[in-house]
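Here is one chain, start to finish.
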Amino acid sequence: MKELYTTTMINNGGRNGKSYAEDQSLSLNIAPPGSKLEDVTNPEQLFAAGYSACFNSALDLIKRQKKIQGASTIKATVKLMEQAAFDYVLAVDIEGHIEGLSIEEAQQLLEFTHTVCPYSKATMGNINVTIKAV
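Its structure:
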């Protein structure tokens, strides 16, 4: 296996702290979900941003191979869920739109993308992920 990229983020203070890149290229204020503070994010938003970008990039690769020109938009909704006291899990809903394709064609492409995307591979069998063409 060939390593293509490595990055490191550091956090101080957990959900009431700061996360920053080891190389100082990114610094984020972190707050619990639902906080009404300005200029903050939370781990669920970061996961949704990463998953949607990774999924759309994997989809672009597949579209190029299949010579599909339509632009795509991916929306990843990450849910933090409590199963029982001190037992939290994530769930993800992915909605995708591909210009020029029917819902059925887009659904097939999205489901195939789910087998290619590194985030999907990492979550497969670990959390509930739904895929829906819109």
